[in-house]
Structures are given as C-alpha cells and as structure tokens.
C-alpha cells in the first residue's frame, strides 16, 4: 500500500520504530521523501478487521556511480550518499531495494513484494539488496536474488543481485 502525503507523521513514527534511532530518521527520511510516490510501500496484516503495519519496503533508483559503489562494497544502505541515487526511476541504472518485515510476516509478504518489483517503475531493472539477517537472506533467495560471493556461505551483510525483474536486453548490458 503506498504511503500518502498526509501520512508524514506515520512515516516518522515507522522510521523510529523500525530503525530505532534519530540518525536513521534524519538521514533516511529526506531520501525516502524525495522518491516516496513510487519508492515506499507499507506491508500490512489484517486481523479481525484491523490493519496493522507489518513491514516497510523501500526501492531507490541508483545512479551509475551508485552501482559502481555497490559492486566495490562502498555503498551503505543505511546512509546513502545522494550521488549514488539517480534523479528518477526513469534514469536509474539499477535499483536498490530495502525491506523489513515483522517476524512471521515474511511468507505472507513474499508474493506482494515479488509483484511490486515486477511493476512500473521497477520492472526491467537490475535490483540490488543487502541481507541484514538470516531471515533477510531467505527472503531475497525466495525472490530470486543471488548472493554476490566469490566463495563461502552468505551471512548477514551479504550483497545480493537479481536480474529476475530485468528484461533480456538489460541483463546483457
């Protein structure tokens, strides 16, 4: 479900609840506000007629410099430099995807998340993500992401890439 402009106070509350500190709020909120019409979705669970927030997913457009930084392991998804972001989804070289869902909600959220990434303006783009936990690795793997490892097993902090949502022309680029 998209976040509406009237939900600014809810957005700040969600950021504080999910990220836990003011630094993340002050650094992350301006970036999300810039792209929020397409970038942020709220994952909700409906129990007994009541809608509760169960997660947040954010997709940001990456510039060519951002893609290089990601490949060089210089990209920090918790503190993203503006130079790593494209001006719009239309000019993006790739996407950076961040998702956090409450325990027990991931399996129900997977179809929604997969569908969201296959729709405009996200479709046809190579997508990058970083697994922040074991659950994050399972989510990314189920969504068709592959770990960017030369050797060893994925662990928290592993970078992932997915060409699943890219068109054949983009995959060859």
UniProtKB/TrEMBL annotation:
This is Uncharacterized protein. It comes from Parvularcula marina.
